[in-house]
Structure formats: C-alpha cells, structure tokens
Amino acid sequence: MTEASLRERKKRRARAEIADAAARLFGERGYENVSVADVAAAAEVSPQTVYNHFGTKRDLLFDRDEEVTSTLVRLVTARPRGVSPVAAVRPAFLAEVDILRGRSPGESAGDLPALCATSSEVRRYVLESRDRQADALTAAIVDTGDEDELFTAKACAAALLSVLQSFVDHVGRRIVDGARPGDVADEVEPMVAAALDGLERRCSPRRRRTRAD
C-alpha cells in the first residue's frame, strides 16, 4: 500500500467518524441544537478538522449526497440500449431500502429521513439537494437519449427524484413514530417497487444516441 493511498484511507475514515458523530448528535438533540463544536467534541477532533472535511454544518447532513448522485448518473449513462432510466436506477433505489433494513433504531434517528421529518430547515436543504440531483440526472438522460427530448428527460428525472423523496418522507415519519427500521424497510420496499413500475410504463425506452452518432 502506498503512502498516498494510506493517507486517503485515513482521510475517508476520519470523515466517516465525524459524519457518524454528527448523525448521532442530530438524532439525540435535533439538528438545530447541535453546533460544529459539539460534533468536534463528540468525534474527538478539533472544530477546524471538522471544517477540513465538511465546509459547513449543513454539509454534515449530506455525507452520502455526492455518492447517491454519482451512482444515479453512472447507472443512467452506462445503461444498455433499450433500457429506460427508470430500470437503470432501480437497483440503487432498492439499495437504499437495504441500507435502512440494516440500521439500528438509534442510527436511524440520526439519518436524513428522520431529521427531514423533524426539522423544516433540514427538509428545505433536502429539497434543494433534490433539485441539484434532478439537474444532474436530466443531463445524463439527455446525453444518452434524443436531442429533442429535454422536457421528457426533465419530467423523468423529476419523477424519479420524487419517488426517492417520497421514500425519505415516509421512512422519516415512521421512524419518528417509533417504528423499527427493518419493519419500515419491509413496508416501504413494495411501495418503492410499485412507484418505479408506474414510472416505467411512462418513461419507456427511446432511441439512444451513442457518442459515435
């Protein structure tokens, strides 16, 4: 293992530990009642170290945001000919259900769905993030579809992100009400699948423009 890769692993581990500490505190006290200094103390690092990994307190909420966005874009861009964007991203959506299934009640209390359900500020941030994700997904759909289908791509991307947000909203309410994460996952999985099935009928595959066209 090279020195550079070792440094990168340490950096990722430190970032994850800070994000975990933030999520735990947000779940215990509420997002508005936790400061960056509180997170630093819980993670046993300095406030500056927190800022080195997360530019703002808000960024602590979206530790996985870039990962989710890049995954959706990659799946859409790499999908085989004749496969719709909906079918392409289905595995990523169902993977979110599996992540929920593996969470403990304490962990889920600090996850984004529960925070979104208990904080209007967090919910506003999340909806802003959905807009950015929809823009990225629209670009990926347009890049692999017909040039004149911009509005169709926008509608498809918005619908897909609406399913993701509906998942977040439902999970958040159920977790706040005291439901166990595994039970909520079992409950919401067929709902997500049904929503994607409905979108699949509306976002049928169109001729894909390859980069060689």
From TrEMBL:
Q: Which PANTHER family match?
A: HTH-TYPE TRANSCRIPTIONAL REGULATOR BETI, HTH-TYPE TRANSCRIPTIONAL REGULATOR RUTR
Stored SUPFAM superfamilies: Homeodomain-like
DNA-binding region as annotated in the record: 35-54
Pfam families noted in UniProt: TetR_N
Record field: transmembrane: none
On whether Nuclease is a keyword of this UniProt record, the answer is no
What does the record give as the organism's lineage? Bacteria, Bacillati, Actinomycetota, Actinomycetes, Mycobacteriales
Q: Which InterPro entries match?
A: Homeodomain-like_sf, HTH-type_TetR-like_transc_reg, HTH_TetR
Looking at the record, the residues that make up the HTH tetR-type domain are 12-72
Q: Which superkingdom, per the lineage?
A: Bacteria
Q: Which GO terms describe its molecular function?
A: DNA-binding transcription factor activity; transcription cis-regulatory region binding
User: What's this protein's name?
Assistant: TetR/AcrR family transcriptional regulator
Q: Which UniProt keywords apply?
A: DNA-binding, Transcription, Transcription regulation
